[in-house]
Write a structure and sequence with these properties.
Helix content: 40-55%
Largest sheet: 5 strands, parallel
Radius of gyration: 34 Å
Strand order of the largest sheet: 3-2-1-5-4
Shape: elongated
Main location: membrane
InterPro entries: FucosylTrfase_pln (IPR024709), GDP-Fuc_O-FucTrfase (IPR019378)
Strand content: 5-15%
Organism: Gossypium raimondii
Structural class: alpha/beta
Number of domains: 2
Keywords: Carbohydrate metabolism, Fucose metabolism, Glycoprotein, Glycosyltransferase, Membrane, Signal-anchor, Transferase, Transmembrane, Transmembrane helix
Pathway: Glycan metabolism
Number of helices: 14
Order of helices and strands: HHEHEHHEHEHEHHEHHHHEHEEE
């Protein structure tokens, strides 16, 4: 019995071994076959279209439209991005722009140029939300932020926000913040601002209007400013499409002129130009000037400012200019601005000289905010138009 048991045990062991061996062979074979299938699929994607190019199509005429669409998609040239500029990063620059759209746009051009020549990383600028305009728009609401970043990648590195480890400094209020000196040369930023960036790693410039001098700068700096202004700062597609529609509507009614009078309350208060204003308006403008502590000039002689050529044209003077330029009264005149100070009273002479004057003189907020309404004669009424 013991011998029989022992012999049976050996046969069982051999049977188990043979089954395991068979299972291993099957598993290995399956892996090899799967590998071959994957390799053939990869080769088929590469060579299949070439091999099958001359074969008759299995698609019907209806299905062939898909191949036409596919050819059109493939024929669109891919966007070629400029190569990244490689440089040793000296730190991060945050900027808060101030003023109207025109001032902020110019400031962005300056800050990109400064970041480029200081070899720092620029964080997408913050737009003014607390000034006279009180507009909540972010950079990406106005400009194509991705185009802004990629189009300048060969000049400067731009990020939408700080890296997490540095972002916590902003949240805790420990970032060094300061206003740079107005109309400064680029050497000021190299000698005064760059050491601060190297020391603190992150520097926040909280006022950016007119902080880089316009004249006497190296040609490369001026070229970069122009590139930012005319190429990198592109409006969002929604704003561009709306602008095209407005232009189309304007052209339907014949020749037109769009005027930005720069005759808003904040402009007059800042400049101190009060020609044509009554005593109450002069007092109101003076109070506004004193209310803004960063407007350094408080006591202003309006007549002297005017003689120095530092005042905007009044609406009444604009009529004289248009007539001197032989602009016919049949032209459409559209007012592109915020609220004209003095309202319809100051616009009366312009409206009388040009009956096709259009524009809501009250309530416009920012030049990129369009508000239009149609009136019975088929024309269009705009609260604002193309910007400052």
């Amino acid at each position: 019995m013991g011998v029989m048991k022992g012999g049976g045990g050996e046969r069982v062991e051999k049977l188990k071994y043979s089954r395991m061996k068979l299972w291993m062979i099957r598993a290995t074979t399956s892996v090899l076959l799967w590998t071959c299938v994957v390799q053939l699929m990869a080769v088929g994607e590469t060579w299949g279209p070439r091999v099958l190019k001359g074969w008759p199509s299995c698609f019907t005429h209806q299905d062939s439209s898909f191949s036409v669409i596919e050819d059109k998609v493939l024929s669109v040239p891919a966007r070629v991005l400029p190569p990244k500029r490689v440089y040793k990063n000296n730190g991060y620059l945050m900027v808060s722009c101030n003023g109207g759209l025109n001032q902020m746009r110019a400031a962005i051009c300056d800050m990109v140029t400064i970041a480029r020549y200081l070899n720092v990383t620029l964080i997408v600028p913050e737009l003014d939300k607390t000034s006279f305009w009180a507009d909540p728009s972010e950079f990406q609401d106005i400009f194509d932020v991705d185009h802004f970043i990629t189009s300048l990648r060969d000049e400067v590195r731009i990020l939408k926000e700080l890296p997490p480890r540095l972002k916590r400094r902003v949240e805790t209020g420990t970032v060094y913040s300061m206003p740079p000196i107005s109309w400064s040369d680029i050497s000021y930023y190299r000698n005064q601002i760059l050491p601060l960036i190297r020391k603190y790693k992150v520097l926040h410039l909280n006022r950016t209007d007119t902080r880089l001098a316009n004249n006497g700068q190296p040609l490369d700096i001026q070229k970069l400013r122009c590139r930012v202004n005319f190429s990198a700062l592109r409006f969002t597609s929604q704003i561009e499409d709306l602008g095209k529609r407005v232009i189309k509507l304007l052209r339907q009614n014949g020749p037109f002129i769009v005027l930005h009078l720069r005759y808003e309350m904040d402009m007059l208060a800042f400049s101190g130009c009060t020609q044509g204003c009554n005593n109450e308006e002069v007092e109101e403008l003076t109070r506004m000037r004193y209310a803004y502590p960063w407007w350094k000039e408080k006591i202003i002689n309006s007549d002297l400012k005017r003689k120095d050529g530092l005042c905007p044209l009044t609406p009444e003077e604009t009529v004289l200019i248009l007539r001197a330029l032989d602009i016919e009264n049949s032209y459409q005149i559209y007012i592109a601005a915020g609220e004209i100070y003095g309202g319809n009273r100051r616009m009366a002479s312009l409206a009388s000289a040009y009956p096709k004057l259009k524009g809501d003189f009250i309530g416009a907020i920012r030049p990129w905010v369009f508000s239009k309404s149609f009136i019975p004669d088929g024309s269009i009424r705009l609260s604002c138009f193309v910007g400052e």
